[in-house]
Amino acid sequence: PVTTRTTSDGTLQIGGVDLAGLAARFGTPVQVLDTADVRARCRAYRAALPDAEIVYAGKAFLCRGMARLVADEGCSVDACSGGEVAVAAAGGLPGDRIVLHGTVKTDEDLKAAFTAGVGRIVLDSAAEVDRIAALAPHRQKVLLRISPDVDAGTHPGLTTGTASSWFGMPPAEACEVAGRVLARPELELAGLHCHLGSQVPSVSRYERAAVRMVGVIAALRARYGISVAELDLGGGHAVGYAEGEPCLDPALFGRAVRGTLARACAAHGIDEPRLLVEPGRAVVARAGVTLYRVGAVQRCGDGRTTVLVDGGMSDDPRPALYGARYPVRLVGRATRAPLETVRVAGRHCESSDVIADGVRLPADVAPGDLLAVPVSGAYHASMASTYNQVPRPPVVAVAAGASLPLLRRDTPEDLLRRDCS
Ligand code: LLP
């Protein structure tokens, strides 16, 4: 959906709201979330996979308002901690539409999950079977997470489905662990799960994973005579940040994966499982724009220009962690100044605090100017920290010309709230 509008005076509107006005009202940095965009992405997934359950990965961005939004669009939520379960539930998600994940599930995580009545718990390792069976207050549906040994073709820090990954058990172990689940009346083996990683650039990786997972389902049927009802293929669909980066289309994904599944199941003579997918970034990344105020322009000794802004790695750690690249643009005023290649850096005291390097900005950018960084709806607010005791920015939803704060900025009191020294 095109809810962004730029006019010749440099005004940028999102969801019918002027960004410069928002910055004046809420201060900077501020993250703006276009809720029409989030809704449209949810709908695109539901249209691409009408029989599947779309499980939004809450780790990308979660608060009550976001949970309400995706619930309203018919999605479930993947929570990877008791905290995410609690926020999803507080946002009105019914328990049966929450899936609990986690390589390590603490007693507190499980307590939150059982309190919310989560529909499914994903078991990552054999040791979880007896522990969760012993704690479950009622018969609990579980999925077994398998690491299918498929290279996601992404950044090593975002790869979770290869043979060396600890996210889920190797396929060879699945039969034995499934047997242990089947032996526990407190548990119901609802299905299998895998997640290849994040920013997965092509559907062929998912097709490969689907074929492997169908092989495991067939092995379970041969060994125990059971039919596995659900297959969760995880999330990780790539979103393009900078120009030319790959982007995975939900419709293409839906067609390819369903075709592959149908063929693989037919080859083994097994029923097709119901599909679950867990997109996080693909639902919310493009809905977000972060606004920063320029605080200084440093002409460095080597001739490079560094534009310094009032946020940085505390609200966007992605460039430092994954070498992520972002476009940046000047908003709020028109200029005829020529473009210059600059580095945009944050306010934190380290050289890895670079928001974008090698971006083109008007040469007259000066303190007080507003810069916008798009595609910042996923893994920004959710990974934000208060490093250097810098307050985390607010997140403001915009739609149909109105703005509604979802998260407020940290206050000085917030920064001291945990301090009991
Ligand atoms: N399902 C599971 C089990 C996951 O572990 C993840 C992400 C997802 C779904 C959603 O992946 P997505 O569709 O959002 O790519 N902090 C990193 C991303 C880490 C993702 C971890 N797991 C980043 O900023 O790129």
From TrEMBL:
Could you tell me which residue ranges the Orn/DAP/Arg decarboxylase 2 N-terminal domain spans? 36-285
* InterPro entries named among the record's database cross-references: Ala_racemase/Decarboxylase_C, DAP_deCOOHase_LysA, De-COase2_N, De-COase2_pyr-phos_BS, Orn/DAP/Arg_de-COase, PLP-binding_barrel
What's one Pfam family the UniProt record gives for this protein?
A: Orn_Arg_deC_N
Q: What is its EC number?
A: 4.1.1.20
Membrane-spanning ranges: none
Binding positions for pyridoxal 5'-phosphate?
G236, E278, P279, G280, R281, Y379
* GO biological process per UniProt: lysine biosynthetic process via diaminopimelate
What terms describe the molecular function in GO for this protein? diaminopimelate decarboxylase activity; pyridoxal phosphate binding
Q: Which cofactor does it need?
A: pyridoxal 5'-phosphate
Which sites bind substrate? R281, R318, Y322, E350, Y379
Family, similarity comment: Belongs to the Orn/Lys/Arg decarboxylase class-II family. LysA subfamily.
HAMAP family the UniProt entry points to: LysA
> What name has this protein been given in UniProt?
Diaminopimelate decarboxylase
Name of the gene this protein is made from? lysA
